[in-house]
Amino acid sequence: MSIRFLGTGCYLPPKVVTNDDLAKLVDTSDEWITQRVGVKERRVSVNETTADMATKAALAALEKSGLEACDIDLIIVGTITSDTLCPSVAATVQRNIGSQGIAFDISSACSGFMFSLETAVAYIERGVAKNALVIGAERLSKILDYTDRSTCVIFGDGAGAAVVTKGENYLSSTMYTSGNDEVLYIPDNVGLSPFYEGEEQKRCVHMDGQETFKFAVNRITQDIKTAAEKANIALGDIDHVVLHQANIRILEFASKRLKIPFDRFFINIDKCANTSAASVPIALAGLDASGKLKRGDIVALSAFGGGLSSAACIIKW
Ligand code: ACO
Q1: Which pLDDT value is given to residue 1?
Q2: Rounded to two decimals, what is the model's pTM?
Q3: Is 274 a known active-site residue?
Q4: Are strands 131-138 and 74-78 parallel, antiparallel or unpaired?
Q5: What CATH code is assigned to 172-189+200-316?
């Protein structure tokens, strides 16, 4: 027993920020960002919270699933940009949609949705939950330093969601963590403690881009191979690859290393940029909405990010 997908959905805030817009803030250009990252524009929240975006994605997925909020008994949100440390984004989504389900967040940076999905599978397999809403939602614009050209051009805001239930379609998965705060690090505030003696750090993304790049290419290749082996699926039999949209060159490298044709990779990085935990569910919803995803298709999902962490799974749609 595992799970099957009943519906997917996503939400992107309406404000479009182009590369030319960012070139007015930092020393960069549309040409550099397009060639080195693959992003042309990103969506940025002006006043919507992470929970607002998560709620809209959840409602879109619910509508497609044919279920009602009252049918959902588990809500998990992968996020590193919760609006408040308490309540969780998931608890706010629960209230917003009118569900009674248990709800909590998972923090695993860009792998957050994948870790959340795996957790939902475990809950459903144990019979603790019947129908789950699994969401990835991020308002990364609030933790970006818009004076740092090496990070602010990469990221965007948004949310993606999936409704899952008992089924046989989650064929295999793999997860990985290697504790490391040198490659990717987002410090938090120390608060109002009068006893703190250290230095307050800037609460924004600190990233060693090249190390992240190498980690990404290695993990994607290894994770998809491991998940495919566990599912007894040849790499050539994968119909669609839905990767974390971090950098177009990472996706191209992955295609070459895995020897899976690039036209099987779903791409929306040009329009959405890197939305961290929201990236995979937004891409999955995009693929689902495109009409290219057919019942029985083999889909590989894969993400990597801070932690350092990574995960992949194989789904029979
Ligand atoms: N515009 C113009 N020039 C730039 C910019 C910019 N926006 N950013 C960096 N540069 C410059 C650098 O200063 C450097 O200049 P120099 O040679 O004069 O020193 C030059 O471009 C090359 O810099 P690199 O860092 O070597 O550029 P690279 O090709 O590695 O691209 C990037 C940087 C885009 C960050 C890339 O390394 C990358 O995508 N890494 C992976 C990031 C990722 O996947 N993150 C996902 C996880 S995020 C999470 O979990 C929250």
Answers
A1: 64
A2: 0.96
A3: yes
A4: parallel
A5: 3.40.47.10
